[in-house]
User: What shape does this take?
Amino acid sequence: MAKRRVNGEGNIRKRSDGCWEGRYTAGYDPTTGKRIIKNVLGKTQAEVKTKLTKVLEKTKDLDVVRAEEYTVTTWLRTWYDLYAKPNIRLATADRYQLMIETYTIPRIGKIKLTKLTSCDLQKLYKDLMESGRVHVGKNQSPGLNSTTVRSVHRMLHCAFEWAVKERLISRNPTDDCIAPKVQKFERKTLRPEDMKSYLAAANTRGLLPMFYLALVSGLRKGELAALSGLTWILRIRLSS
Assistant: This one.
């Protein structure tokens, strides 16, 4: 029985056109069992030997046949369905789906998973920061904020870590990326000397209780609106 070559074996020869070629076994076709042969080319034997050593080192622990099947799109969707969605909260799953389908796939989805580089991802982050927003409102920046882009980076890191575990890629490309720093904005607060006029203006509009509550409780606008609505409903029910 003929000996099977394993990932890590290759041979070098000089072709009739004068170039040197290194051929190696990248895996076996699961249907036919035949070897999958790939090659590297160079002008000299030494150049080909160096290239062959590098490619064999890179692919020795990979499931080459399966890896070739995936683009960034197909892997992210596979990862989302199998690993992410069943193990996270519904709100988080919805956010992941938005980041995958809206922010990532339209930009880098066609790239082969094995060909994806940290440079591709760095360009993705830059594009999202500059023009990633889908619906741009009046006086609103077309780019996503740094917090959102960092969230995309963290999600992609998780997805590609699973690709490494599945032997589809040898290294996580996000490891060499620089995620955007979170931008800090200075909060504007009401000065003590302005509180009297603030409450007086609220009183003239019949909103003194709500504005006073905002000052002493620190509730956000949405929380205040919800509380106001609940109070209004209770008043109606008590008066009926």
The radius of gyration is 29 Å. The first helix runs from residue 45 to 59. Residues 135 and 185 are 22 Å apart (CA to CA).
